[in-house]
Amino acid sequence: MLQSPNTRTRGSRQLWLDAALNLLATSGIDAVKIMPLAKSVGQTRTGFYWYFKDLSALHDAMIETWETRNTGQIQARCEAPAGTINQALFNLMDCWLSPELFDTRLDLAIRNWARNDPRLAARLHDADAARITAVRDMFLRYGYSPEQADVRSLTVIYTQIGYISLQVEENPAARLARVPHYVEMFSSRPPAPEEIAAFRGRHPVRPG
Questions:
Q1: CA distances (Å), 97 to each of 1, 32, 91, 177, 202, in order?
Q2: Separation CA 135–CA 204 (nearest Å)
Q3: CA–CA separation, 118 and 121 (whole Å)
Q4: Angle CA 120–169–108, to nearest 5
Q5: Alpha-carbon distance 149 to 147, whole Å?
Q6: Contact 161, 53 (CB under 8 A)
Q7: SS3 state of residue 102
Q8: Residues 121, 127: contact at Cβ < 8 Å?
Q9: Residues 6 or more apart from 100 whose CB is under 8 A from it?
Q10: Whole-angstrom Cα distance, residue 22 to residue 35?
């Protein structure tokens, strides 16, 4: 579709949304206001209203983006083809090491926002439940009992929530080296060397 010449004077919906998400991640929801957003994208506030009815509509779009980007990716990785439970867990671990799959900063910002927004808190609860269900179903597919699948899924998701909430910072090489041990802890099965090699091949550690 051809864009109107006026598009350059009002930006694009994605431009405004990306700016809002970045402001949320860096400064919190109280900083997400129309004028600061307009300044950050080099537009006027009139351009904002071309794409969003009001600030509440922008908030809804931000939350929907987070649900798709983070919860949706966890569900997709849990459903990705894998020959063993450890391969499936390595697929899931891709999320924690690939910002293009899972936005950790956004997840933390949403959790902080939800502390003062009951409606969002309910959606966050539902999102965490959906993530747990996706991991539980993954364990069930590989023959774990319902009780084991339930506890292991809670352990996987709550471990990651802890990383996010505590804003843990690790040396990338050290974190990558720990992943096979997490996988063995979650599955109670040591990963095969070829499984570890395939995972590390997807996450090369850059020097320096």
A1: 36, 28, 11, 12, 10
A2: 25
A3: 5
A4: 5
A5: 6
A6: no
A7: coil
A8: no
A9: none
A10: 15
Please write the tens of the pLDDT for every residue from 32-87.
999 999 999 999 888 899 999 999 999 999 999 999 999 999 999 999 999 999 99
* pLDDT by 10s per residue, the chain, length 208: 333 434 454 568 999 999 999 999 999 999 999 999 999 999 988 889 999 999 999 999 999 999 999 999 999 999 999 999 999 999 999 999 998 999 999 999 999 999 999 999 999 999 999 999 999 999 999 999 999 999 999 999 999 999 999 988 888 889 999 999 999 999 999 999 999 999 999 998 775 5
- Residue holding tokens 């339930």? 150
What token pair was written down for 184? 């063995």
CB neighbours (10 Å) of residue 208? 3
Amino acid letter at 24?
A: L
Identify which of 86, 93, 81 has the alpha carbon closest to the alpha carbon of residue 188: 86
pTM higher than 0.70 for the full model?
A: yes
What is the chain's alpha carbon radius of gyration, rounded to the nearest angstrom? 20
Judged by DSSP in three states, 174 sits in: helix
